[in-house]
Amino acid sequence: MKKKLILESGEVFRGKGFGADQDIEGEVVFNTGMTGYQELISDPSYCGQIVCMTYPLIGNYGINRDDYESIEPAIKGLIVKEVCDFPSNFRAQMDLDEFFKKRNLSGISGIDTRRLTRILRNAGVVKGKIVSEDADENTVIEDLKASILATDQVAQVSTKTSYANPGRGLKVVLVDYGSKLGILRELAQRDCDVTVVSQDTTAEEILLINPDGVMLSNGPGDPVDVKGATEMIQKLLGKVPIFGICLGHQLIGLACGAKTFKLKFGHRGGNHPVLDLKKNKVAITSQNHGYAVDQESLKKTDLEETHIALNDRTNEGLKHKIHPCFSVQYHPEASPGPEDANYLFDEFIEMMEEFKSKKLSK
């Protein structure tokens, strides 16, 4: 099944297709992780994107039942140097090609992923399309230039109805902007009683649940496109502790008057160093985002910067100066990646307990 990847900038890569035999179009990005491809494929934050893996061999430990980050994958497609046809792992239930066929996903292998990554690093992310070998390249390029990427990715991946993940501890409302199951697992390990709600849930509806805290999840796309989120956060500030991750972090920034911007090629991988400015301590983190909070715009807000990325000095963490609210741009739940930042969930628990204690003492 010969295929080719065509970029809107005119570059063409020829290779071999795997998974479902169909043409796919999306924003082409790259991920530097050596492992964790199953979590990546099932991460809702990749909605609408075609992901190039910089590590050359993908699929070598197969697909298993335990490492999913969502029930339905939202990724558009996968680009790899080499797909492993015979995985070797005691947990493996199928290979990557079989999984892609079952899930109606498509990918391309056998291309120069190093060259593609250099193009994306130099020029920034671009639209691309994986098509059959006989597709007319000029026509595809013109179509890509004229096409407009979707802006409703959060609505596509968010739960449509609320559901519970019961526990006997603190009551947490998790606003699902494309939440990874890793967040639920971390809260469950701390015995939190979690109610997961849709991305368009209002502050009034959240407060009716009477939570001890609210968590704003990760998710895909531009934070400016998430309608109603900033207004909801503004109404919750001061009334309940808030913890934001990735997209949730950016939405807190917008709600407090900061601005966001699109990164040239984003942060995607499991090896990104982040400096905690308060503790003067570095954590190696898992990241997946294409937007960041503008640090200059923080000066006119009640937010203080708590973390920065050491690779490009962009913002990685915020804390509200008045209200119990903090956030990070990276993924403390990892999945996949290092667990250096798991302590942030414990800090969220402590924040909720302190806030609850103050309310009871009044």
From TrEMBL:
L-glutamine binds at residues 45, 219, 221, 247, 250, 288, 290-291. Small subunit of the glutamine-dependent carbamoyl phosphate synthetase (CPSase). CPSase catalyzes the formation of carbamoyl phosphate from the ammonia moiety of glutamine, carbonate, and phosphate donated by ATP, constituting the first step of 2 biosynthetic pathways, one leading to arginine and/or urea and the other to pyrimidine nucleotides. The small subunit (glutamine amidotransferase) binds and cleaves glutamine to supply the large subunit with the substrate ammonia. InterPro entries: Anth_synth/Amidotransfase, CarbamoylP_synth_ssu, CarbamoylP_synth_ssu_N, CarbP_synth_ssu_N_sf, Class_I_gatase-like, CPSase_GATase1, GATASE. Residues 1-131 form the Carbamoyl-phosphate synthase small subunit N-terminal domain. Keywords: Amino-acid biosynthesis, Arginine biosynthesis, ATP-binding, Glutamine amidotransferase, Ligase, Nucleotide-binding, Pyrimidine biosynthesis. GO terms for biological process: 'de novo' pyrimidine nucleobase biosynthetic process; 'de novo' UMP biosynthetic process; glutamine metabolic process; L-arginine biosynthetic process. The active site is at residues 246, 331, 333. Gene3D superfamilies: 3.40.50.880, Carbamoyl-phosphate synthase small subunit, N-terminal domain (3.50.30.20). Residues 1-170 are annotated as: CPSase. Pfam families: CPSase_sm_chain, GATase. Composed of two chains; the small (or glutamine) chain promotes the hydrolysis of glutamine to ammonia, which is used by the large (or ammonia) chain to synthesize carbamoyl phosphate. Tetramer of heterodimers (alpha,beta)4. SMART domains: CPSase_sm_chain (SM01097). Pathway: Amino-acid biosynthesis; L-arginine biosynthesis; carbamoyl phosphate from bicarbonate: step 1/1; Pyrimidine metabolism; UMP biosynthesis via de novo pathway; (S)-dihydroorotate from bicarbonate: step 1/3. This is Carbamoyl phosphate synthase small chain. GO terms for molecular function: ATP binding; carbamoyl-phosphate synthase (glutamine-hydrolyzing) activity; glutaminase activity. The keyword Flavoprotein does not apply. The keyword RNA-binding does not apply. It catalyses: L-glutamine + H2O = L-glutamate + NH4(+); hydrogencarbonate + L-glutamine + 2 ATP + H2O = carbamoyl phosphate + L-glutamate + 2 ADP + phosphate + 2 H(+). Belongs to the CarA family. Its EC number is 6.3.5.5.
